[in-house]
Amino acid sequence: MFSSIAHFKEIWDMESKATMQCLEALTDESLNKASFGDYRNIARLVNHMITCADGIPFEAGLPIAFEKKQYTTVAAIQAAYATATEKVKQGIDQWTDATLQEETPMYGESWKRGFALWVTVMHQTHHRGQLTVLMRMAGLRPPGIYGPNKEEWEAYQLPPAD
């Protein structure tokens, strides 16, 4: 749970940049590559990520505009994600550290607003992990975010990782 606006902003900026790195590695062709079974494909997953980036904070009472849309090109996806995350960054300035301790109804429960923001970040990270797997399945190279990806590791001329 976040207990300070400053801490949230620091983490939100870092995690949003990491997600944008993934979105920048997508191609329009990759968006509709088949997944497996009836699970989300890349287009469906990234649209969900955009919706939740500002949708969860909106549901928690962050004073921002929210509209659910579907995007069909990488350029539109990147622009929509940048807009959603920027709205959250600007909207959070309307709250104080004390606001993060306030309870709000969320999905049939009562959450502290700081917890809702933490869930927003963790939700994005969870789906970013899924996205990197789908990117590999689509023949794309996901970026190394928390450490080098396979290609980056090999470029360091290190022995294969365990």
For the record, the count of structural domains works out to 1
CATH class: Mainly Alpha
CATH superfamily: dinb family like domain
- DSSP strand (E) fraction? under 5%
Q: Sheet bearing the most strands, described?
A: 2 strands, antiparallel
Order of helices and strands: HHHEEHH
Low-confidence stretches at least 5 residues in length (pLDDT < 50)?
none
Principal-axes geometry comes out as globular
CATH architecture: Up-down Bundle
Name the helicity range. Answer: 40-55%
Q: What is the residue-mean pLDDT, rounded to a whole number?
A: 95
Instruction: Give the total of beta strands.
Output: 2
Radius of gyration over C-alpha positions, nearest whole angstrom: 17 Å
Please state the structural category: mainly alpha
- CATH domain topology: Four Helix Bundle (Hemerythrin (Met), subunit A)
State the strand order across the main sheet: 1-2
Measure the end-to-end span: 33 Å
Count, helices: 5
